[in-house]
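Supplementary Methods, section 5.1.

A reviewer requested that the exact input to the structure prediction be made available. We therefore reproduce it here, unchanged from the version used in the analyses.
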Amino acid sequence: MRRYIITGTPGAGKTSIVRGLARLGHRVVEEAATDIIACRQLHGETQPWTGAAFIDEIVTVQRERQRATDAATDDVVVFDRSPVCTHALARHLGQPISATLSSELDRINTEHVYESAVIFIRNLGFCEPTAARRISYQDALKFERIHQHSYRAFGYQIIDIPADSLNARIQAVHQEIARLDKVNTTTRGVATIGAGKIGQHAAQVDWMPGRSADRSYSLTRS
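The structure derived from this sequence is encoded cell-by-cell as follows.
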C-alpha cells in the first residue's frame, strides 16, 4: 500500500479536493483535527485548540485512522494531513513537541508509513473563517510557511498545487498521484532521517515568524 499525504494551510481548499478524489475512486482518510474540534465544540468547548491535550489527541486519532487502513486492499490511500502537519500545528500554537508526537514521528519514519512526495495545496489568496477555522489570511500564510518548513525539515519532497478552480485542482492532484504512483511501484522513495532519530530531531525543528478510528472511504465503493 502506498500512502500519500495532502497538506496545506487552513482555507486552501484541501478538504474539498480530498473529497473530490474520493468521488474519483480514491480511498481517503479524513483530517483528525477538524473532527476533534467539531466534537469538542458540540460539547461546549469554544476553543479546543487551547487545551493541553489537543495535540496528543490529534496524534492518537491520526495513528488510529492510519492503522485502520492497514487491512484495506487498496493500492493507494490518500491522507488529509499527517503527524508532520501536527508538528507544524504545535509550532504554530506555540506548544512544545510532546513525547507522543515525537514518538509518532519516529514511527512513521521507521515504518516508512507515508510516501516521501507530499502534495501541498497552496492558498487561494483568501481564508474564509468557519467554526473550526478561526485564523486570518495573514496568519494562514504564516502557517503555510510553517507547514512547508516542517515537511522539508523531515525530508519530504513538496509537490505544489497552485490556486485554481476546484475541479482543476482535483484533476491536477489525481494526475499527480497517478504519476507518483507509477514511479513508486518500481522505486520506493520514502522520507528518512535515520531510524529512531526523527523524534529527537522533531524537538529541534523550529520556525518562528464519539469518533470512529476508521474515517477512510471511497465514494465509488460500497
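The longest helix spans residues 166-184. These observations are discussed further in the main text.
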